[in-house]
Write a structure and sequence with these properties.
homodimer; mainly alpha; Tetracycline Repressor, domain 2; elongated; DNA-binding
DNA sequence: GTCTATACTAGGATAGAC
DNA sequence: GTCTATCCTAGTATAGAC
């Protein structure tokens, strides 16, 4: 091995800036994924930074260099999950389709999101129950607010399609704000029991997603 | 105040044995209720025995006298919740009613159970996600097994009525084992968002329960 | 039966070496 | 940028007084 070549982390002067940022970005994503996995398996409170680090084949130091605190790490995982979901659902919610079909597609997409990004989605559900109210810094509180705003926006997409369907007579005359809870609850419950089977195919996930979409659609349909 | 009268805890020789046991039983129930509340608000891992004790206006000593460990305390709360649910649902599930109506009543009852015993039910949901697999003693593992058995029995009641409805053609041709997940998920999601409003009436809860029962019934109905 | 005092450990977070 | 070493608090659990 040549003594003059750089270590794993190249010297800034030898590397274009954007390349560096890519690496840093990649690094952070790797940490987030490991954290999401740990939070899914043990829950936020029971997860130690050490176990996340070990998962990465590293030590605390690496994590604390990139994230101020365990709470911040959790928030980043949560934000990542919300951004992902909004990005997928927003175009479907905004599409010019009958409420019935639109809701079916949204439910289908959400079920797929949950199954295919399970660790992040599990964290996102833990975020709902999050009990960080006491010990958070004012800075973290504002982060928490923005996460809640994203969640509200997301729920809003479903409320909108429900109201459209009620107005058109496709759906029963129900309270959209109320029924959106069991609707998303049925889908999010996947995070509680679904774990990918060893040799699972996309077809098996599609079947689960179909069943769930049919279930929640039936739940609001007029007959 | 007479000097000869007993303190809060009377001497055994002055009190009939069954009376003593009632007091002990009452004492444990009080601890369980405080623990359930704390576990609901902060989650199992983030709850300290100290905070449960403070809630009781007592100290750790009182709790550790009655329960060996925090895990045992959690298990007792969980068991209490499961016993409660089984007791309510079993007779409905066993009643000689058409599947459609039977499921509606079971869903209604479950929704009411969740709302009216929220702390215990929230713990029961936390139990599903429970990650105690590593650090439990063999004794605790067997307790955990019995809790899982109760949960399976409970879920079984819903699977049975679903299969009856499929056989009779009232429900769609779906996999009962699969659809029971979003069904109970929709109802259990109540533990995530429902909190009794300050001056809440039984009528308001009945309305929520009705909406939920209608939703899950619609989810499986044939059309 | 409940309290106070205390032993003991895990884990969040930081400092400084490399 | 990551590691090692360390500080420090919080919290489980127990012992012994009352």
């Amino acid at each position: 091995m040549a003594l003059t070549t750089s270590a794993a982390t190249p010297h800034p002067l030898q590397t274009p800036a954007h390349r560096l940022e890519e690496n840093a970005e990649q690094n952070r994503r790797e940490i987030l994924a490991a954290a999401a996995l740990a939070f899914m398996e043990q829950g936020y409170a029971a997860t130690s930074i050490d176990t996340v680090a070990i998962r990465l084949g590293a030590t605390k130091g690496r994590i604390y260099y990139h994230y101020r605190s365990k709470a911040d790490l959790f928030f980043e995982v949560h934000r990542e999950a919300m951004l992902m979901n909004l990005e997928v659902i927003r175009p479907i919610a905004g599409s010019d389709t009958a409420a019935k079909e639109r809701l079916r597609r949204m439910a289908l997409a959400h079920a797929h999101l949950v199954m295919e990004h399970l660790p992040f989605q599990r964290v996102s559900v833990q975020g709902v129950e999050m009990h960080l109210t006491g010990s958070t810094t004012p800075e973290q509180r504002s982060t928490l607010q923005s996460l809640i705003a994203m969640r509200d926006e997301y729920e809003g997409f479903f409320i909108d399609v429900l109201e459209a369907g009620i107005a058109s007579g496709d759906f029963r005359e129900l309270s959209a704000r109320m029924v959106v809870k069991p609707l998303l609850g049925a889908l999010n419950w996947l995070t509680m029991w679904y774990r990918p089977a060893p040799g699972e195919t996309a077809g098996m996930r599609a079947q689960i997603a179909d069943q769930h979409a049919a279930f929640v659609l039936g739940g609001v349909l007029n007959r």
